[in-house]
Amino acid sequence: METIKYGETKRYDLFGYIHNNRKIRFDNKFEMLCEQIQATNGNTVPIIVDTNYLVIDGQHRLEACKKLNLPIAYRMVSADSERLMITLNRTQRPWSTDDFINKYVKQGNHQYEQLQQQLDCDTYAKINRSLIYEFFSSTARGVHREIKDGNYEFTPRGHVYLSSLKMLSDVLGKDVYKKSFARALKNIINRNSHFSIEEFARKCETNRVYF
Question: Which residues constitute the domain of residue 116?
Fold first, then answer.
């Protein structure tokens, strides 16, 4: 990474964002960042931009300076913008699994677009997101690593597992969404072609099975 120049400006319109970068979150951490920048009358750590003024690292600092109408200090570098963006962000505010999903959705990856649709579905709003990643994955292990590496493969079979959990939750309550139970049910469905979730739910209700 070669530094080309350092600068400071209030021309916020000079800067742009890399399409594949994670979403900017205007949350409590952002408000705390604004307070810190206001206390020092500007960002003491320059944002990093490429030769086109696209922000590689520091998009939250840029937004904070814009909000506070303070000059933004920047460092222009010559580097592989996207690779450096991910590397630097990991040392600041680590990328979440959802950040990587968003990155690949923006790239037009259909596997990730299908996964994002399920994550946004109201039907699954109360289900642990890790279970959604896992149940709609064509592989059994290392799903978070697959997502981050861009190797996620979507399977619609996840609907079978999650609809089964939904049916059981009506009988047994929300504890069926605990990972241990949900994964056990998934294994039963996969290993027993004659398994009937309807019959299992009926027996649970008849025999008053509770957690």
Answer: 98-206
